Amino acid sequence: MAPLDAATIAKLAGVKLRARAVMEGVLSGLHKSPHQGQSVEFAEHKEYAPGDELRHLDWKAYGKFDRFYIKRYEHETDLRATLVVDASGSMGFSSGALSKLEVATSLAGALSYLLVRQQDAAGLSVLAGETFQDVPPRAAAGHLSTLLGALERLEPKGGTNLRAAADHLSEGLPRRALVVVLSDLFDETPDALKRILRLRARKHDVAVFHILDPAELEFPFDDPTLFLSMEDERRLEVNAREIRESYLEELGAFLEETRALCAESDVDYQLVRTDQPLDAVLLEFLARRQGRRR
Amino acid sequence: MTFVHPWMLLGTVLGLLPLLVHLFDRRRPRPQPFAAIAFVLRSHRRTTSRLRLKRLLLYTLRTLLLLAVPVALARPQLVRPGAAPAHAAGPAATALVVDRSLAMRFRDGETLFERARDEAREALASLLPDEPVTLVPCGPDAEPPPPPGFDRGRVRQALDALQPSYGGADLARCLGLGARALEDSPLPGKRLVLVSAFTQVALRLEAPPPRVKVGDKLVQPEVVLRDVARGRVLKNHFLLEVKAEPSPQTGPRMVQVTFTARNVPAGEAGEVAASLELSGRPVAKAFLALGPGGTVQKTLVARAEAGGAVTGAVVLPEDGLAEDDRRAFVVQVPRELRVLVVDGAPSPVRYRDEAFFFEAALAAPGSPVHPTLRDAEAAWREQLREYDVVALLNVAAPSAEVAGRLKAYVEGGGGLLVSMGDQVEAEAWNQRLGALLPRPLRLVKSAGATGETAVRPARLGEVAFDHPLFQPFTGKAREGLLSARFSRYMLVEAGPRSGDAAEVLAAYDDGAPALLLARRGKGRVLLLTSSVDRDWADFAIRTSFLPLIQRSATFLAGGLDERERIEGRIGESLVLHPENGVRVVEVRSPSGGAAPLRPESDGGLRVGPFVEPGIYRPLDAAGAPAMSPFAVVLDPAQSDLTRVKAEALAAYFGEEAVRGPAGTAEATVPVWTWLLVAAVLFFFLEGMLLRTT
User: Fold this and answer.
1) CATH number at residue B119
2) Residue B639 lies in a domain
3) pLDDT exceeding 70 applies to what percent of chain B?
4) What is the mean pLDDT of residues B513-530?
5) Disruptive mutation site among A250, A254, A255, A274 for chain B (greatest number of B CBs within 10 Å)
6) Has this prediction a pTM greater than 0.90?
């Protein structure tokens, strides 16, 4: 199966379809991937204790060692994941088939599928300005539709406040969890990203999908342009060609700083272009996580 | 700074284009919602000052580029400042010598003279307050100037009133006049400022350089040269000579004009069209290939509208010096004369007819005379006023009535020629026409009849060859006249009558008058005391007969004296010789003024010196033409605008003078090439700036 490009995904209406398509692409990719190892795969042995399921007894090990060992699988790691989706106004920007928010919701939906499929608890936290919309993590199969429904209803609005989001998440995550942040990280508040990354210091596993539009990365504008902010009233009339080089320098520095901060904080960072095949994005993400686990 | 093509400077308005484009041609920006506006704002803040500077540089470069091109095309030239004139210790008395020669009329945008006046004003303004100054206008009439004074206003007024002349200038003499004027100043410093185009014809380098006498010593004054030609070569084509004369062989009233045009100095004039004007109308055209320094001669033939004095001009296309591209002339076109020949002794045998030779002479091919032959009876029925001349050939004394008509005819301006013969009775003639005749007739004398010698006919002994009538008789031609033999002739009363001005134009070798002239009223009377057939003389078969008879008829009609070619030159004068009874009271110049007149001891009238070229018209008291007009022409030498070389000037005046405020050859520095280089550089820099973002 060929990777699902953004244009193809854009033709699918709704987060559910997109997420499913992305997930199927991921599963198909996993089958072929050299980094195989779903959560249903064997992870480790554990000496049998009363109460353990007998069906997981490793009879071969009993034959060799004359002891009862129980096979443990990855899905039994009891993962709680919270998908943090940035739904600020800036996420509504699109120069191609998909807006950044559509990419974020598609990725979040696909991840929800994967998590629920392997019986991990998946929750959702949506940032939209100063307000938060939370769906608590659950592993029940019926929870998936709740998640997808919440994602489906998202509209870009308000500003980006990562600092508030970090505080909110710190309070709402009492135990170790996987925090997947899907955002363009356009928050000019000093140390806003650092606050998010501090979640890692609190033993949370943090992954950042930095979603950016190709136009934001390449700045293809040429003529005199009136740039309008998508989150507030700021505007600027400028000859785009004249500031292109400077813009790219600024953006490059921002990306470099973000990447460095994530690396320092042992946070999984992935830059996602909205024109990129999303299944490939997820596959890369999963493979990297697999690598980290080993 | 000067400009060769100043009108090209109009193109500098293009320099406003970048500003106008900036102000009026701003494109509407495209609105673009953009998520990463923070980076755009930050980039803009970072680059604003740089972009503003870049934009300013771009505007400046574009404006400079658009200014540089038209200014370069205007061919600017920098006047090199040169070394400041070496001032003598303390103030110096100054003489401003301003060239007024014809060359200063050369037009290069403005005339060199206008530029000279500006230069002189500038020199005047640059003088120190305690430096006295005097002005030496240097034209053909240069006079010693007043001593240097401090009245700058007077000098400025004199400068304003100065006009260029049509004549030459002797700069060496003017410098000498200035130097002598400086001697009147007690100041030890002496300065001569010469404002000129420095043509070779104006500055005689063989003359000694100017010196000022201070005490007993001759000292070299400080000389400041101001070259109004800015070191340029002054190209000029002009008419060197024009010769206009009647051309009866090509047809009636035809005029042949031969002119010579020259191109100096070695400038390329190419093919120029010269035109011939007669009586103010162009009648012919010729094309001249005037090579570098070349001289071309052309001849044009055209028909005049009428006979008499015809004014005309040869015209070349105007160049920098337009004054010498037109040269006026006056040509005497023979008028068609009608002569009533009254035959007093007709004969059926043609050669014995009294008028046979006379009529044949008048009607010769090419002659402007049309004779009408009548016998004595038929002649008096003619209307005399229809004829220019009446010739009475051996006619018996007419009746009193006819005599009255003849008298009225002559006094009204008609010409009368009377020749003798057997029909003429002295007493009757004296009685009837005595008032008309130059002198009363006495009796017929037969030469050789005295018996002293065998039969020896008389010959002409004394002839007024300086009279227009005898002008063709020069050299051997005189023999044809002097060898004529007269066997009989009428004697006339001796000596002039009181109040009469009869002239004896020729006399026989015995002293008896042969040809007499008298003016009666407005007319003239010629009396030939012998006959015009072969009865009394063999003059009729002599070679001199035909021209003398034709000229006599023309003279009597008033046309012969007009054939004298009178032409004056600028700066010179000439002497007019009005006929007896004609009084010239004014000679009107081409501009309508009166030329100076001065009577001469020989009765002539000196006109001039002439100050402007063109046609001059002698007028009588009533304002009517008293004589033929005449042309005054430029001295062609003044049209040679070849300039003195800088080295020669340096050798003559010294290095310091040549390097003065507006020295000669190296005084101007063309800057347009640098401007073009700058324009290319601006263009390159503009491209570089556009490329850098």
Assistant:
1) 3.40.50.410
2) no
3) 91
4) 90
5) A250
6) no
| pLDDT(B81) > 50 | no
List the single residue in A with minimal CA-CA distance to B690: A242
B349/B395 same-domain check: yes
Asked whether residue B206 falls in the same domain as residue B326, the answer is no
B42, B43, B55, B692: best to mutate for the A interface, most A CBs within 10 A: B43
> What average pLDDT does this structure show over B643-659?
77
User: For residue B546, is it within any domain?
Assistant: yes
Q: B39 to chain A: which residues are within 8 Å by CB?
A: 247, 250-251, 254
Quick check: B44 and A251 CB within 8 A? Answer: no
* Same structural domain, B460 and B516: yes
Q: What would the pLDDT profile of A103-158 be if each residue is shown by its tens digit?
A: 999 889 888 888 887 777 888 998 887 788 888 888 777 888 888 888 888 888 88
- What are the pLDDT digits (tens) for A71-112? 766 544 567 888 999 999 999 998 888 899 999 998 898 888
Judged by DSSP in three states, B452 sits in: coil
Report the percentage of chain B scoring pLDDT > 90.
18
**Residues B145, B55 within the same domain:** no
Sign of CA pseudo-dihedral A273, A166, B37, A91: positive
Of the candidates B617, B577, B579, the one whose C-alpha atom is nearest the C-alpha of residue B595 is B617
Interchain proximity B42–A225, CB inside 8 Å: no
CA distances from B383 to B335, B386, B390, B556 (A): 20, 6, 11, 18
Positive/negative CA dihedral, A107, A109, A114, A120: positive
Residue type, B260: T
The DSSP result for B244-313, as a single string, is EEE-GGGSTTEEEEEEEEEEESS---EEEEEEEEETTEEEEEEEEEE-TT-EEEEEEEEE-SSSEEEEEE
- Out of B505, B536, B558, pick the residue that ends a domain: B558
Domain range enclosing B619: 566-629
Under DSSP, is residue A128 helix (H, G, I), strand (E, B) or coil?
strand
Q: Is the dihedral of CA B361, B366, B368, B371 positive or negative?
A: positive
pLDDT in tens, A275-288: 888 888 888 888 88
B527-546: average pLDDT: 91
Q: Which two tokens stand for residue A42?
A: 């064997």
B150 shares a domain with B210: yes
Do residues B74 and B207 both lie within one domain?
A: no
User: Do B98 and B223 sit in the same domain of this protein?
Assistant: yes
Q: Exposure string (b/e) for B482-504, b if CB count within 10 Å is 16 or more?
A: bebbbbbbbbbbeeeeeeeebbb
Q: Between residues B692 and B162, which one has the greater pLDDT?
A: B162
How far apart CA B87 and CA B70 sit, in angstroms, is 40
Whether residue A256 is predicted with pLDDT greater than 90 in this model: the reply is: yes
| Token pair of B41 as six digits | 């704002």
Residue B638 lies in a domain: no
What domains appear along chain A, each with residue ranges and CATH number? 6-34+79-293 (3.40.50.410), 42-74 (no CATH)
SS3 B123: helix
Answer yes or no: do B686 and B542 share one domain. no
C-alpha distance from B688 to closest chain A C-alpha (Å): 14
Q: What is residue A41's predicted lDDT score, i.e. its pLDDT?
A: 53
Q: Is the ipTM of this complex over 0.85?
A: no
For residues A10, A15, A18, A20, the Cα torsion angle rounded to the nearest 10 degrees is 180
pLDDT score, position B82? 43
Identify whether B265 is preceded by a cis peptide bond (ω within 30 of 0).
Answer: yes
Burial of B108 (0-12, 13-18, 19+ CB in 10 A): middle
Look at the alpha carbons of B478, B483, B488, B494 in this order and tell me if their dihedral is positive or negative.
positive
Cβ atoms B381, B564 nearer than 8 A: no
**Domain count of the fold of chain B:** 5
- Note whether residue B287 is domain-resident: yes
Instruction: Quickly state the pLDDT bin for B415 (edges 50, 70, 90).
Output: very high
